[in-house]
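Z., the sequence and structure:
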Amino acid sequence: MKHQASLALFLFAVFTFAHDTYGQPLKVTLLGTGAPPPVMHRFGPSILVEAGAQKFLFDAGRGATQRLLQLRIPLREVHALFLTHLHSDHVVGIPDLWLIGWSNGLRALPLRVWGPRGTKEMMWHLDKAFDFDIRIRLYDTRPPAQGVVILAHDIEEGVVYEKTGVKITAFEVDHHPVKPAFGYRVDYAGRSVVLSGDTRVSENLIRHSQGVDVLIHEVASADALRRLGNAPERVKAIVDHHVTPEQAGDIFTRVKPKLAVYSHIVEIRREEKRQDGPGPQNEDARPDRARKPAGSPRARLRDLSKRLWNGRGSNHLGIMAPPFPPSRPRLSSPEPSAWRSRGAFPVGEGSR
């Protein structure tokens, strides 16, 4: 087996495992290795696994869609998402992946989502939240109707996907008080990778990681949290939900993977560094752009908004939405002929 690892400038790592029999690699890309703080050098938790021509995304933290675009991966080719748990930093990128992958990427297949109990309900609420946007795009630019459909699965421990040589197994981990929380193992062409998700030391993870080629494990440093100014009780509460670097080292020693990788990293940085020179990367951070004189276009726009809004739920101009259809297609199964009325939610049967 050949191991190739590279760290790009925008901080994602790529691991490729060649296999002569199948001729196509198992490729793992860390799209985001960060924690909840919104920093620019580490995006939210998200891992892309490519098994031959198939693409599987594990978690969709902040910036996952941007990372896919940086890799020049067509968003329409990503239609399988597996969630480790439902903490916001692991799911906040879902609307971007789902809607932009459909309306801009022209995904023509439903987005399938596997996750712990509560995944169906969360996706149902997302579907309702973006109903206006979806209907108006179907009326206006008319992207493929099937591509906006979500097929959500609440899963339990076991094999949750097995198709064309790829087997994905979910196993419970210990992210107390979050329960259930899952890690995943992907097996393809004689190669394997385990993704821990968020967890404390988990004997179940160690059991499911035996003989694995790559183990990607989360880590949190109490020292880093203290130096960031967190109160001792908060440091303890956070570390109690995660694995320290020392504990992760013990896990790697017991599992003996061919390659061990840290992820979900809390770093010692109080704030992002700002650059004084010109360039797109510092535009959002320049305080001089946030303070405009009263006569500026931005100030005039705010004033116009105040004058237009009458405080009674409408505006003085009587602006109405275009006459797009009051209902839209929703699929209850992957077949294109399956339709549901407005308000229904497409939930796929089974988890494989």
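The chain has a mean pLDDT of 75. Residues 99 and 288 are 33 Å apart (CA to CA).

Let me know what you think.
H.
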